[in-house]
Structures are given as C-alpha cells and as structure tokens.
TrEMBL record:
Listed name of the protein: Ras-related protein Rab7
PANTHER family membership: RAB FAMILY, RAS-RELATED PROTEIN RABG3F
Keyword Nucleotide-binding: yes
Gene Ontology BP terms: protein transport
Keyword Lipoprotein annotated: yes
Membrane topology: Lipid-anchor
GO CC list: endomembrane system; vacuolar membrane
Gene Ontology molecular function: GTP binding; GTPase activity
Alphabetically ordered keywords of this record: GTP-binding, Lipoprotein, Membrane, Methylation, Nucleotide-binding, Prenylation, Protein transport, Transport
Family in the record: Belongs to the small GTPase superfamily. Rab family.
Localisation: Endomembrane system
Pfam families in alphabetical order: Ras
Amino acid sequence: MILYRYVNKKFSNQYKATIGADFLTKEVQFEDRLFTLQIWDTAGQERFQSLGVAFYRGADCCVLVYDVNSMKSFENLNNWREEFLIQASPSDPENFPFVVLGNKVDVDGGNSRVVSEKKARAWCASKGNIPYFETSAKEGTNVEEAFQCIAKNALKSGEEEEICLASRISPVPSDRFWFT
C-alpha cells in the first residue's frame, strides 16, 4: 500500500496483498534530470522467498518496510536484508543502499505500537546507518520524503535513466489494512 500511496497519491482500503511480486513505475525529477523509478514490491511471505533472485538482481536500492505495530515484522528485517544481499549479489554488499520504513504509525493513534522509533533507529545504525523513516500509507505521512531519500540513494549506486528499486514489505497485517 505504501507504494500505491507514493505512485498514485491515494490510499485504498481495497488493496490486496501482493502474491509473488508487483511492479510500479514513477517518473521523478532529480537534479534537473528525469528518471523512471522501477519499483518491485516482493511479497514478504516465506513461500515467495525463492522468487527474490529474479527481482533483486540489478536493483539500485532496497527498501525494507515493517509494521511498527508488529514485533515479528521488525524482527524479520535482519532476514530480509541478508536474503536480499545473498540473492541480489551486489558488487559491494557492505555499501549497498538500503532504506527502512516503519509503517502504520497512524494505527490506533500510536497506542498499539510495539516497536519504538529509538529501537528501529538503533537497528539501522547497527547496519551502517541505514536511513529510517516513520510512515503512514493511509495518511501519507513521510511517504514522499522517504522516496526522495530512496531515489537519491539509488542514484548513487546507478547513474542510469531508469532506477530499479526492490522492496520487501511486512507480511503481517494490521486489523485495518493488509500488507504483503
């Protein structure tokens, strides 16, 4: 849903979970040049893990999205990051750009939150100071800012007209919307 929010500037309660992978594109202006972001949304469920290699190779940035209301999705960040590095086989894994999004900060006015911003930022710092944003796909909170950072990081690793982004989004749904 966060990708749908970014690309279409809307939220829909009718959004269906990703099965395997989904693909979106968006043209962005950066430093007086026009780029096309290719955004691959891969399903977080373990049963789709083997599909990753087909989508991760050639990625210029990887976005890891977890649900701030689910400790399980936060705990999956390590596995998703490692899985991406194994399957994508980037030439410089130590410096490959990642961005982490803690999504669903709007749910229940923040009362159902189980992963603190401090904990998430500490995890990102321990992995080489990965940029971190707290977002809400429903409200649009920090979505544009996060994707500006994502595009900037992707441009550092690939100076082409098309930028390829791989994302792994938490498979744990909240009681209000489904994420893949």
